[in-house]
Amino acid sequence: MSSDLHDIGRLRAVLTGPARPTARPGQRSAIDKTPCTGAVAAGPLGLAGDEQGDLRVHGGPDKAVHCYAWEHYADWRAALPHAAERLAHPGAFGENFSLEGVTEAQVCLGDQWQVGSARFEVSQGRQPCWKLNDRFGVPDMAQRVQEGGRAGWYLRVVRPGEVRAGDAVRLLRRPFPGWSVARLLALIAERNCDPAVLDEVLALPLPPSWRRLFGRRRDHGGAEDWRARLQGDPAGR
């Protein structure tokens, strides 16, 4: 277990937004977030003023704050020139924290951070959904995000407080240095069903959704069907 206290990054922006109807009938999304000025309160269910479109799969204590690495934006601008304007500023991926200096490869499950006066814990990586396809006008955008491992990750709020753009991200504790978010996302994307690997993963303090995912792979020897998540229901249900 590592507890070397040091700054690992910086908040480039803190973003929030309301849930609004989408072009798909019956669907709502809060992916369109805007930067906040000044201090923003962080509590057990997320940031003040932030909403989620579908509470069945978004939000809650284990997905209180979504993080995305600003370092990825340059690669996305090169890959998606039609979306250069959207990718000129943080918020394109619906993130709450736009982070400089840290990516999925430098973040581990269970990491505890101090940001402003709040304390956070890395709870899981993001599994992208079809809303990214619609947002970017790219039919396989969610799949690209997943396959490239540039999906972002979630934080739970361990101690409420306030955060603001420019705050340092200080690593307080790293209990599982061998389990980066990048490694876990790769296991999902590569459909890894190796029982020995899954036994290691299931020994980690996983959130319920990931415990079900990896547990089913371990029990059944096969990966889950991603079509509904990555493509959405074409009937709009």
Characterization of this structure:
- Helices cover 24% and strands 25% of the residues.
- By secondary structure, it is of the alpha+beta class.
- Strand 9 (112-115) and strand 10 form a beta hairpin.
- Helix 5 runs antiparallel to helix 6 (208-220).
- The relative contact order is 0.20.
- The mean pLDDT is 93.
Distance between the termini: 45 Å
Strand order of the largest sheet: 1-8-7-11-10-9-13
Stretches with pLDDT under 50, minimum 5 residues = none
- N-to-C SSE series? EEEEEEEHEEEHHEEEHHHH
Q: Number of helix segments?
A: 7
Q: How much of the sequence is in beta strands?
A: 25-35%
Structural class: alpha+beta
Oligomer: single chain
Shape: globular
Essential attributes:
237 residues; seven-stranded mixed β-barrel; three-stranded antiparallel sheet; 13 strands; globular
In short:
By secondary structure, the protein is an alpha+beta fold. Helix content is 24%, strand content 25%.
Secondary structure: elements and pairs:
Layout: E1 6-16, E2 20-21, E3 28-29, E4 34-35, E5 40-43, E6 46-47, E7 65-69, H1 73-79, E8 97-100, E9 112-115, E10 118-125, H2 131-136, H3 141-148, E11 153-159, E12 161-163, E13 168-173, H4 181-189, H5 195-202, H6 208-220, H7 227-231
Parallel strand pairs: 7-8
Antiparallel strand pairs: 1-4, 1-8, 1-13, 2-3, 5-6, 5-12, 7-11, 9-10, 9-13, 10-11
Helix pairs in contact: 5-6
